[in-house]
From TrEMBL:
Source organism of this protein record: freshwater metagenome
NCBIfam families, A to Z: coaBC_dfp
Listed GO biological process terms: coenzyme A biosynthetic process; pantothenate catabolic process
Name by which UniProt lists this protein: Unannotated protein
InterPro entries referenced in this protein's UniProt entry, alphabetically: CoaB-like_sf (IPR035929), CoaBC (IPR005252), DNA/pantothenate-metab_flavo_C (IPR007085), Flavin_trans-like (IPR036551), Flavoprotein (IPR003382)
Keyword Amino-acid biosynthesis: no
Pfam family, one: DFP
Cellular component annotations (GO), alphabetically ordered: phosphopantothenoylcysteine decarboxylase complex
Coiled coil regions in record: none
Domain Flavoprotein as annotated: residue spans: 7-175
Length: 396
């Protein structure tokens, strides 16, 4: 299963083991999920909303009747890519199995078409109750994952099957069920996106038509594969990506400064931004009168990736991007790759307005050796994963 994102709703049932879901939330974040918590009212007797908001960094919704005009259960169901219910009490399991919707969480589950994973935790007598056994079988027959509880100590002196599973096993079973890649867990990926602008005066600038879509797609893909992602974004109209730290810049010099701060700690740098080649030698603080706007004296901007590559450690991977018009010259592109000190380069043809601003792309992935992968017309999300696959190889 390929997820376009990892927005996850963690539903928390009203059992004593609700406190264990705090650790589960952290581990879900570690593998790249952006977690919003949706507790039942009963569960708030064990863990309060403030705890969930502090741990998740997201607001907590409980009341189905708040912001009714936004239809909150439908909105939440459409935004989530997966739902995990932990702990799933006997009561919650019965409601989900039989389509009972009496609060925000059960209404959201009913409205959702995403994978649903349940983590039962209850006393052994309740887990073995014929109704619970029948309800669990019903949920599994619908394709939901119901993780078997552990055997062990319960509240008081009780002992048996029904204990909240070890969090490591929960994560393992979720990853297997969703077929998730987390091969960039523990890695930091730095990405530039958009197009830099160089001010001519207070209202005019030199720029380009890069939309930033490829860089944002890379950021999302790297996040989805478990990486810590920092996105240096220049002049895009794209929405921020949850779980990605974004640094907004305008000019090449601002991007250069952000790279200087972030590069040393990254494992891979994708220079997907279209950096303005030149800038005016002088910048007027006011607006230049039209009659005086006869010529602009320019100077070259620094080649940011060539510059940063001189500081690179052997363990770091640099990926350059080249947009050309006309026939693509792979030999010249390989020479450019070496000149810039990059390990990989994506070359594409932007003739007649292609690629820029589009959700699709086509081109070649090359390295300084014999690698040459043709990428026929495809979604930028697909290319992002192909590039990450090649970076994974370079990282060893």
């Amino acid at each position: 299963m390929t997820l376009q994102g990892r927005e996850l709703i963690l539903g928390v049932g009203g059992g004593i083991s609700a406190y264990k879901s705090a650790d589960l939330l952290r581990r879900l974040q570690d593998v790249g999920f952006v977690v919003s918590v949706m507790p039942t009212r009963a569960s708030l007797n064990f863990v309060g909303a403030a705890t969930w908001e502090a741990l998740s960094g997201q607001p907590v919704a409980v009341n189905l009747w708040n912001k009714v005009h936004e239809v909150p259960h439908i909105k939440a169901a459409r935004s989530a890519h997966v739902m995990v219910i932990a702990p799933a009490t006997a009561d919650l399991i019965a409601k989900i199995a039989n389509g009972i919707c009496d609060d925000l969480l059960t209404n959201t589950i009913s409205a959702s078409s995403t994978p649903i994973i349940l983590v039962p935790a209850m006393h052994p007598e309740m887990w073995g109750n014929p109704s619970t056994v029948e309800n669990v079988a019903k949920l599994r027959s619908r394709g939901h994952l119901v993780i078997e509880p552990d055997e062990g100590r319960m509240t008081g002196d009780d002992f048996g099957v029904g204990r909240y599973p070890e969090v490591s096993r929960i994560i393992s079973e979720i990853s297997s069920f969703l077929e998730l890649k987390s091969d960039f867990q523990g890695k930091k990926v730095l990405i530039t996106a958009g197009g830099t602008r160089e001010a001519i005066d207070a209202v005019r600038y030199i720029g380009n038509i890069s939309s930033g879509k490829q860089g944002y797609s890379l950021a999302k893909a790297a996040r989805n594969r478990g990486a810590e992602v920092v996105l240096i974004s220049a002049n895009t109209n794209l929405s921020p990506i949850a779980g990605v730290r974004t640094i907004d810049v305008t000019s090449t010099s601002e991007m250069r400064a952000a790279l200087a701060t972030e590069f040393a700690s990254c494992d891979a740098l994708f220079m997907a931004a279209a950096v303005a080649d030149a800038r005016p030698k002088t910048n007027n603080e006011g607006k230049i009168k039209k009659a005086d706007l006869k010529s602009i004296e320019l100077e070259l901007n620094p080649d940011l990736i060539a510059e940063i590559s001189t500081l690179a450690k052997t363990s770091q991977v640099l990926i350059a991007f080249a947009a050309e018009t006309g026939d693509l010259d792979l030999a010249a592109a390989k020479a450019k790759l070496v000149q810039k000190g990059a390990q990989l380069l994506y070359l594409n043809n932007v003739s007649k307005g292609a690629i820029f601003g589009s959700d699709r792309t086509s081109g070649f992935i090359i390295d300084g050796n014999s690698l040459q992968i043709e990428c026929p017309d495809q979604n930028k999300d697909t290319l992002s994963d192909l590039l990450l696959d090649q970076v994974r190889v370079k990282l060893g």
